[in-house]
Design brief:
Elements lengths: L8 H8 L9 E13 L4 H6 L6 E13 L3 E5 L6 H8 L7 E6 L2 E2 L5 H7 L3 E4 L3 H4 L6 H11 L8 H11 L16 H13 L5 E5 L7 H18 L2 E6 L2 H7 L2 E6 L2 E7 H6 L4 H8 L40 H5 L4 E3 L3 E4 L17
Parallel strand pairs: 3-8, 3-9, 6-7, 7-8
Antiparallel strand pairs: 1-2, 1-4, 4-5, 9-10, 10-12, 11-12
Helix pairs in contact: 6-8, 8-9
Bound molecules: iron/sulfur cluster.
Length: about 350
């Protein structure tokens, strides 16, 4: 592929500030990714208004690595920029600045044709399986089209491969002749996963793949993704607002707020000892098993500010119970902790980066 440019994987690991103990290979490296959307007013506004045009900073300086064979969860409330980040990774949203390197390919500067070819290696599973499947196509036609467009195999092999794919996702080959409306929500999501697998990708980006499903079906789809990841050696980015799902499925987690990463690290470390007040607030919002849990909750004030006018300094400061004057004017740097890194001024107050008292 002619768009391939050299990429220093070692450098990417060093820049990330965090790496797995086994030093596994970085498959995807994102640096200082920004996706800004200009807000267009009416034509009269643009002719006569002297005000600066407004910009929605959906993603604002995000950096992370994804190691081959691992699962990263992008988690946060609605509007935090997690879906925009996922779409930018696959070229569905063009970055305003920053770099995205996937398996040595610079995605942000690729043209349309090169991106189309690369999407064979990177597939997206959408939240709503019904709207992402063509209602006029049978399951077979959907899978066939995907395999033909991506030159996966000779035409004569497609029917056999489609039958194998159906079995792989827990459906019957006999169901290939059916249309999407003839399936339940969970089965439709299985078809979406089969379509993603049809091109033999290296990475799957799943955007809230269980959000539109009943709880019992959510579990089945999560188990299917986990099993496929292990069996096929896939790398996965799992986008969700549900932290309880993260603990189940992800090796690492990036907690996002207003277009920025607040905390990044091993899922177990983040869950055991969150470093950022925002992560702690999200964890405290989960239902607790122990009725007599005496931990002190972090309660955020108000609601998320508009990404049209994000707060200066730390983006969380208008809502954070620990905010000081410094938080309103100076953006915090990441502070390395054991297994995680978090961006909060409180973490710089002690030498070893551990907080005492407030969130202990
Ligand atoms: Fe809260 Fe300040 Fe830390 Fe931001 S930097 S999370 S406002 S204490």
């Amino acid at each position: 592929m002619e768009d391939k440019r050299m990429f220093d994987g070692e450098q990417a690991r060093a820049d990330s500030g965090w790496q797995t103990a086994d030093g596994s290979e970085v498959l995807l490296s994102v640096r200082d990714l920004r996706v800004h959307f200009p807000v267009r007013g009416s034509m009269l506004d643009s002719l006569f208004s002297k005000a600066k045009p407004q910009v929605v900073k959906a993603v604002d300086g995000v950096s992370f690595d994804v190691h081959r064979g691992s699962t990263l969860a992008l988690v946060g409330e609605s509007g935090c920029g997690k879906t925009t980040t996922g779409r930018a990774l696959i070229g569905l949203n063009r970055p305003t600045s920053g770099t995205i390197v996937f398996d040595g390919y610079r995605i942000e500067s690729m043209d349309y044709e090169a991106l189309q070819r690369l999407r064979r290696k990177m597939q997206f599973v959408f939240q709503d399986p019904y709207s992402s499947l063509n209602p006029r196509m049978t399951v077979y036609t959907t899978l066939e089209r995907s395999m033909l467009l991506n030159h996966v195999c000779p035409k004569r092999e497609i029917r056999d491969r489609a039958a194998v794919l159906m079995k792989t996702v827990g459906l019957l080959p006999d169901q290939l002749s059916r249309y999407p409306h003839e399936f339940s929500g969970g089965q439709r999501q299985r078809i979406s996963i089969a379509r993603a697998l049809a091109v033999e990708p290296e990475m799957i980006i799943a955007d809230e793949p269980t959000a539109a499903l009943d709880v019992s079906i959510q579990c089945q789809v999560l188990n299917l993704l986990l099993e496929l990841k292990e069996r096929l050696g896939l790398t996965m980015i799992f986008i969700t607002h549900d932290l309880s799902v993260v603990n189940y499925i992800a090796d690492t987690v990036a907690v996002m707020y207003l277009g920025k990463i607040m905390e990044f690290g091993h899922t177990k470390s983040v869950f055991r000892k969150p470093g950022h007040p925002y992560t702690k607030a999200l964890l405290d919002a989960l239902p607790r098993r122990k009725a007599l849990d005496t931990r002190r909750d972090v309660k955020l004030r108000g609601s998320i500010p508009s990404p049209l006018d994000p707060p200066a300094g730390c983006a969380l400061h208008p809502r954070c119970p620990y905010a000081s004057g410094k938080c309103a004017v100076q953006a915090p740097e990441f502070v390395q902790r054991q297994g995680t890194k978090a961006a909060c001024h409180l973490l710089t107050q002690t030498e070893n980066g551990e907080r005492s008292g407030l969130m202990a």
